[in-house]
Amino acid sequence: MLPMSYYLVLGAVIFGVGVLGVLIRRNALVIFMSIELMLNAVNLTFITLSRYLESLHGQVYVFFVMTVAAAEVAVGLAIIMLIYRNWGTANIDDINLMKW
Amino acid sequence: MNIVIPAINWASIAPELVVFITAMVVLLIGAFFPRVSSGVTAGISLLGVMLSFLVTASLWGSSELAFANMLALDNYRLFFNFIFLICTGLTILASIDYFGKSSEPVEHAEYYALLLFACVGMMFMAAGTDLITIFLGLETMSIAIYILAAFVKKNIKGNEAALKYLLLGAFSTGFLLYGIALIFGATGSSNLATIYKYLSGTSNLSSPMLLFGMGFLIVGFGFKIASVPFHMWTPDVYEGAPTVVTAFMAAGVKAAAFAAFLRVFVYALPSLQPNWIAILWVLAILTMTIGNLAALLQENIKRMLAYSSIAHAGYIMIGMVAAKNAAADIGTYSVLYYLLAYTFMNIGAFIIVVLYGRYAEDNLNISDYAGMGYKYPVLGATMAIFMFSLAGIPPTAGFVGKFYIFAAAVKGGFIDLAIIGVINSVLSVYYYLRVTVMIYMREPVADQPGLKFSRSATLATTIAAVATLVLGIFPDTFITMARQSVSLILG
């Protein structure tokens, strides 16, 4: 079995990729996907720690996180749809009526 | 393997249940009777809020843990419940007026239901004694508020606000969650009491996992309380969202985030206090100063109030830096009192913004307030009360709140913070008084058709104004209440 740190580092790297995606990409949908990547990196970390601590709590938390993420996606996609209808774009640089 | 089902004490979540069931009822009424008037749904929501208020009051003084130590039933939570319920109640009253003026018809049943769901989320945030409960409460609140921000669909500024709030809110959730995961890994539990016990019994307080976890929690909560440097979303979201939703966000979300922030840091991580005090010390100064400086330059009153709310988060963080894990600790109860005072004065100011418009989102420039005091003397005087209170001028709630916050800072040995805080308050007087000067010392620019004041919003303003004055002139009862709320049980 690989040592725990490998999985933790993998989780941290995926989280970092997600953060970079949010900061660099300009399409609202892609930003949203990057956020999902961050949440899944956290899930990986939870599972790893759960295994290492021999506690089932961490695995249960993953279910909570997935549920919340699903709810957030439902609302998030609805808002992005609304934006696309009213603005005709999902590029966050164009959606800038107020000072950003 | 024996699975023991823990005892479930439904009475311990009675206030939340009442609000939740009311929200469901309102939602169903909207679905089955689509043509019911907005007065009915708002009235039922208000009844639910009042009932929950009574239930909360009847539970006052209890001290126990419920739901397998996931929730606390203590005065700390009940005090915050009062804040959230007041906040929701005043917002509902103002919303009747706001949507009466709005040109676009809205699904009012859904609106009130979402408002109540957000309130339930806030209440669970204040109740949670487990990082996961706090996280679930936070998300219940946030998701409802993302929708509320975009509730007037054709308002493109509202759309933009919702998108920005959604993306940055979800981004911050990622950090909060990663923080929870790392703390879970470092301490082996997500329960605040267990974390506290583990940390006070170990000497290994500098493990990178623990410190990174703490740092990410600060980032996550920092976004929600709108602390600099995580405040970028605040002015845009507050300006774009419907004014009533902004009022709800500015007071409710901030109070809820502080409730959880304070509970986690002061009661679960006191062993790391030297570490987080160093961070919060810097953040408090930055938040106050940048919030106040930016507020000086604003022309839009909602944006000005947004920056002012950032500055207020800074003042509250001073109290948090001075807070200690002890019963009747002045740092903690000064924060509680300040949040109560802030709820009334801030929502009050936003409701005046709603009232002083012929249609929704009207008269939003500070220059539009010219001569308001002559045309509408009572409205002008009430706005002046809220502005004085936000600036911290006696005899208003804001003054007493600031007094206790700075007293806590001095008592805790953070005299530098207290001095910077006082300088900042002086700075803030400029932009608050600017509004008052506009109201009383400028001629009205143009002849506007008269405003119609609805009874509900007038009632809400009256409650807020009277409470602001009462909290300022007779603070004793409320200070005692706040002090009683600071005896936490950690099982």
Q: What is the strand content of chain B?
A: under 5%
Give, in order, the helices and strands of chain B: HHEEHHHHHHHHHHHHHHHHH
Oligomer: heterodimer
Helix content of chain A: over 70%
Distance between the termini of chain A: 48 Å
**Largest interface, with Cβ-Cβ < 8 Å?**
A-B, 43 and 39 residues
**Could you tell me the strand content of chain A as a percent range?**
under 5%
Low-confidence stretches of chain A: none
The number of domains of chain B: 1
Task: Outline the structure in words.
- The complex is a heterodimer of chains A (100) and B (491).
- With 100 residues, chain A is mostly helical.
- Chain A has a domain at 28-89.
- In chain A, 78% of the residues lie in helices and 0% in strands.
- The longest helix of chain A is centred in the last third of the chain and has 31 residues, at 57-87.
- The radius of gyration of chain A is 17 Å and the shape is elongated.
- With 491 residues, chain B is mainly α.
- Chain B has one domain.
- Chain B has a two-stranded antiparallel sheet.
- Chain B is globular.
- Chain A binds chain B through residues 8, 15, 18-19, 22, 28, 31-32, 35, 38-39, 41-42, 45-46, 49, 52-53, 55, 57-58, 61, 64-65, 68, 71-72, 75-76, 78-80, 82-83, 86-87, 92, 95-100, and chain B through 132, 135-136, 139, 143, 146-147, 150, 153-154, 156-157, 159-164, 166-167, 170-171, 173-174, 177-178, 180-182, 184-185, 188-190, 232, 235-236, 239-240.
How would you sum up this structure in a few lines?
Chain A is built from three helices and no strands. Chain A has helices spanning 4-24, 28-53, 57-87.
